[in-house]
Design goal:
six-stranded antiparallel β-barrel; Elongation Factor Tu (Ef-tu), domain 3; four-stranded mixed sheet; 2 domains; elongated; about 200 residues; SH3 type barrels; mainly beta; about 30% strand; 2 helices
Length: about 200
């Protein structure tokens, strides 16, 4: 386990699959004793290729994850410079459409403004911008990029449901999918891993 901001090895995890991005519970038991009181600790990113779990004790750092991947460009999911978009823009995979087909506008490559519900509760995000990702999900438009009008606490594995104003009939649920871990790619900085090799 590597402390994201300090580039220090602070513990040893028991498997990346036990942790999700944004998770707080269960991190302290696998930290070295010296770092436990510096929490609360959160999972910031995972790097399966190196079996590294990045952790942070700064909630502000969680809002920066999602950007700064090498080769990323501004506006791409997982690209950009870790701006406010990081917690507003995300990818949704495996979208299932209630009607059996996505809205025609998405198939035509247009951006739709939909209401997006991230988790159970009263808060939703009207006027969210949704577009199908080219070359992903095929004609089913099962992979989407979503940009919320304001930041929200997001984590991979959460469901995002899409709603559209149906006029006099009220709000119609169009479908739902799962927030992808691809949204939270490991940024460039932790690739150093040279400060502490213990």
């Amino acid at each position: 386990m590597v402390w994201l901001e300090q580039d220090l090895i602070v513990g040893k995890h028991n498997g990346l699959w036990f942790h999700t991005i944004g998770q707080r519970k269960g991190i302290v038991p696998v930290l070295a004793n010296a770092y436990r009181p510096l929490g609360p600790w959160y999972v910031a990113a995972k790097d399966p290729s190196r079996n590294v779990l990045f952790v942070t004790n700064s909630p502000d750092s969680l809002s920066l994850m999602g950007g700064a991947e090498e080769g990323g460009t501004e506006g791409e999911v997982g690209g950009g410079g870790g701006s406010e978009e990081a917690r507003r823009t995300f990818r949704v995979d495996g979208v299932t459409w209630i009607s059996g087909a996505p809205p025609p506008a998405l198939l035509l490559g247009q951006i739709m403004e939909l209401e997006v519900q991230i988790r159970h509760g009263p808060n939703s995000h009207p006027r969210s911008r949704v577009r199908a990702l080219a070359g992903m999900g095929g004609e089913a438009a099962s992979c989407l990029e979503v940009t919320l009008p304001k930041e929200d606490s997001l984590a991979p594995g959460q469901y995002a449901a899409f709603y559209q104003d149906a006029g006099e009939e009220g709000i119609e649920c169009l479908g739902a999918g799962v927030i992808s871990e691809e949204t939270w790619r490991v940024p460039q900085a932790p690739y150093r891993l040279t400060v502490n090799k213990k």
